[in-house]
Amino acid sequence: MSITSDSEYQCIAPIDFISMTKVPESHTWVLNPCDENLLESIPTIDLLDPNAISLIRHACEKWGIFHVINHGVSSQLLDEVELQTRGLFSLPFDQKLQAFRSANSISGYGTCRRSCLHPKRMWSEGFTIVESPKQDVHKLWPHDHHQRNHFCDVMVMYRNEMNKLAETLLDLMFGSLGLTQEDTKQVKPKTGLKNPYGPLQLNSYPICPDPTKAMGLAAHTDTSLLTLLYQSNTPTSLQIFKEGIGWVPVHPLNGALIVNLGDLMQILSNGRFKSVLHRAVVNNTHHRISVANFYGPPNDVKLSPLIQLGNLDHLPLYRSVTWKEYLKIKAKHNTKALEFIKN
Ligand SMILES: O=C(O)CCC(=O)C(=O)O
Ligand SMILES: [Fe+2]
């Protein structure tokens, strides 16, 4: 496994959102809204653009997030991933609970792992795939082996495509800092391992009777090196926090994938690239889904700012940590975690 178990987090079961006609007290948040009329928007990078490398560097320094187009992942595969994800979350609630994740595991059905860090619950449910999804999927469709096999095949294919794309993007990002593939090879997942990559997270945001009072996914940064996110073409839900502006909406862009930087990238780049604070809100007309592929190094590789290489010639801002150690710090300090490994 390339990630720690979630014993640091308490497992909290979702509720049956379909049966809710109002937002219960347990799920009521006070939201500081986002200005939907903002003209600012995240950059879009065309991977076929000859200037892609410098555009990526600019996007990573200024935004920590961008849309990527001409990424080489087929629209048929993206459509199928959305269809399968919708199929899973449309199962009866009792059926989904059969695959409820246990206290010492990450995989399966449940609420966002960070739910227990907040006094109120979120308006979302998730399904996490760490190694093979086979066991959990068996609990969801016990009598339909065709459906089970198809779901697993689609998700495995998608993960492979995402990890290939993440690798390409990582080379471009590191390359833009003057780092070579040799410099960075130890922080990349190792294909020889049983399960070299981070988890795949399927997110579902059911229709909400009062979106002004509910939170889909609370503000957080990802711990990964980078996250590749697919979002359904439903009303805008993802928002990022930009210093000096506030919450900026990330509108769906047909065929594009979202690339967002995680804390490990901020550490490796010695703060040159920023991990992005983001959250998801909900709506009262459409069931939204998103699929996040968290890409990162093997669990036990020590990561420190790559200052002696490339053109990161400053004192290291962060001490070295493994992904596993950092997840423990994150479970305790959430969005303040990076402060705790500052030199
Ligand atoms: O649903 C989204 O747009 C965001 C998902 C996300 O941030 C996550 O899974 O970490
Ligand atoms: Fe995230």
Describe this structure in words.
This protein starts with about 45 loop residues before the first strand and ends in a 10-residue tail after the last helix. The chain contains eight helices and twelve strands. The chain has one domain: B-lactam Antibiotic, Isopenicillin N Synthase, Chain (Jelly Rolls), CATH 2.60.120.330. The radius of gyration is 19 Å and the shape is globular. α1 links the parallel β1 and β2. The strands form two sheets. Strands 1-2-10-7-12-5-4-3 form an eight-stranded mixed beta sheet. It has a four-stranded antiparallel beta sheet with strand order 6-11-8-9, with no helix packed on it. α1 packs across α5, α2 crosses α5 and α4 packs across α5. It is α+β, with helices and mostly antiparallel strands. Fe (ii) ion binds next to loops.
